Amino acid sequence: MKTAKLCAVLASGVALCACATLSPAGTVKSRVSADYEAAGGISGMRAFIYGRRTVLELPSRPLWLSIQDENGVTVPYEREGRYYRLTRTLDRFTVRANTRVLSFSRVTERAPIAANAPLNADPASRLRPVNDVAPPTTSAARVGAELTSEEDAVALLRIAVTQLEEVRQTIAAGGGSDAEATALNARLDRIEAQLFATGTTLIRVQFDTRSTDFRPNDEFVRTLIPAAKAAQRINLRGRTDARIAGRDDPGIALGRALAVRRYLVDHGIDDGKIKVFARAAGDFLAPSNTDAGRALNRRVEIEFVDARYAALKPQAIRGSGTTP
């Protein structure tokens, strides 16, 4: 009798362990990013393709984390804040974080789908952006129709010129050394020359202290989305206001660039033409010892490569711009 009870206890223990470790079979899959869908307790977890690697985003640091590919092979990773950069790109993988088990699968269909929305949900729910990007009040379709031909390029160049002037005024207001001001102004001269002589243009979007939330206003979006759709290539460079990188700064810089990438992809931009870069400290645009300068340095630079910019004349784009 005692032997029978002991066997029953052991059997129930094995069953519980199996429930705690097996991937959730039959669970409804949800789109968690433009790159992956997932099944399981996915609340707050996301995955993206970043260059040649998969990046996992977790809402908090787990006490125990294990990642296996589709063959059950453990995949190493590097942690930067809440981001876990895997050593390669994965099509299918399983994440075990504390007691949670999640199965991720790469998707090829690019339509933006709300995080945690079942794949058979109402079609209108698929047009909502993912949770950590502020929902725009202007639809992507309407945005694309409002600017045509060269209008989006002219509007974008006006933003770039206005932003450069704002930075020059901040530098002129003082706060840094004469040598630093000279170096910063020389950099602005190179950027401005690039606007008129090459097929690229550069604008910036700013972030609050330690924040990775990208929440552009509608007026800025009306220029951003058509210009991004028309560009042959887009480079995103995440920056902080740190002189020396702290523990969280690499994740903040990368998180800012990824937030802009997610916003663009969720609004119909081909992710194949977007490249993401990040630097945790330095590379300042303005003096870093004033509040105004630090605000300008907390940024993502968005570089658009588009042959139209080289053909536009300087006098055609002079005028007031729009800031995000």
From TrEMBL:
Keywords: Membrane, Signal. Residues 194-308 form the OmpA-like domain. The keyword Membrane applies. It comes from the Bacteria. Residues 1-20 form the signal peptide. One of its GO terms (cellular component) is membrane. This is OmpA family protein. It comes from Massilia cellulosiltytica.
